Amino acid sequence: MNYERRTFLKNSALATSGLLLAPWLLESCNSPATSQAEAVVKEMFFKISLAEWSLHKTLFSGKLTNMDFPSVAKNEFGVDGIEYVNQFFKDKAKDTAYLTELKTRADDLGLQTLLIMIDGEGSLGAPEEAERRSAVENHYKWVEAAKFLGCHSIRVNAHGEGTAEEVHAGAVQGLGSLATFAKDFGLNVIVENHGGYSSDGSWLTAVMAEIAMDNCGTLPDFGNFCLKRTENGCAEQYDRYKGVTEMMKYAKAVSAKTNDFDASGNEINTDYKRMMQIVKDAGYRGFVGIEYEGQTLDEYAGIKATKALLEKVGAELS
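Above: the chain sequence. Below: its structure as tokens.
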């Protein structure tokens, strides 16, 4: 058999088996060294989920509904998990029929429903007891809804009006009380760095340390580290790498925030390889959620660019 025929048969066999993806992959079949192909197929140390907020413009416009989110997440973006935002089904927390249909759609697609991000239910860090208690009780229905949907957590905020010390004390009480309620449901209460005191990694981790409950933790977001805002934008920024490093000790989820990309597909504000190395070094092996908030790309393109970046970095670090 001549060389040309042997090569043709080899290539034909690979193509039939779905392995003829690129010349470098064919070459790697005979290479003893770790190759680019091996890096691509190597299992990453994390899985990728999609935060519903990445599609907030589409949802607010009415072009997409919360009920459609699971199918879009799976069929458009190929993720393994989803993270809901309560703003898009705010009146459905106790609607069993609605939640049953939502759960069925996610389950039928093989998606893991990971968490619900909760906003607009009051200040869990309020120094005043009555205000704080009202906020805690407002979150009860979302704990129950999250349990029904199969989530592991609800994401909450540690906001409050007062000094750093006053809001710290309020957050310890409010979050601790909510976590006590959630514990009976097997649910975590996790806090995102979401502006104000919560974007100070040392402040937030001090709150976590004082609460000291296994089901109360953090959701580090790569981009939410603005401590003070003015009409001109962020006036004071906490170091994002320091903040994520601090928060990873208590992390039960991770949010991969992106805004803009360079020509090579890298996020221009965050060194993703450095950030994901921090996540890996902390021993985290859970889901990393895509949260695109950019203006240059449309939401669908931005989500896909974020996923591609996570896959590239994941292959390099795994």
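The beta strands are 47-51, 81-85, 112-117, 153-156, 188-192, 216-219, 226-230, 233-237, 254-258, 287-292.
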